[in-house]
Amino acid sequence: MLMLPATPETIAGAVQASGNAPDELSAIINVMPAPPMPFIPPSHHGHLVVMILLCCAANAEDGTRAIAPFRALATPIVDMVRPMRYPEIFPPDDGSYHPKAVGTTLFIDTVDRDVAGR
User: Fold this and answer.
1) pTM
2) Which of 3, 41, 63, 113 has its CA at a distance of 20 to 30 angstroms from the CA of residue 81?
3) For the chain, which domains are there?
């Protein structure tokens, strides 16, 4: 997970970076208030952020290169992106992990800076 400040530039840039990424890279981009999680600095809690979940099915060097455009968009608030084995992307199945989320989806064809600023 990579978390960046939500500005029109970072939102539009994340969408553009995703569109330009190699086929081996998958990105889920969320614009949302930063939750009060312990790994997020408290000064960002409740403020809009761009949370990007990234997965690259390539070797570590190619993955780092594929993710670089996302990291270049802004100074990350949180950068948890690292090489890992597939099973590590899932939380432990000890019965204590029960995330809850509410989402709103918007279907549009493009996101440029003007759309991202709305």
Assistant:
1) 0.80
2) 113
3) 2-86 (3.40.462.20)
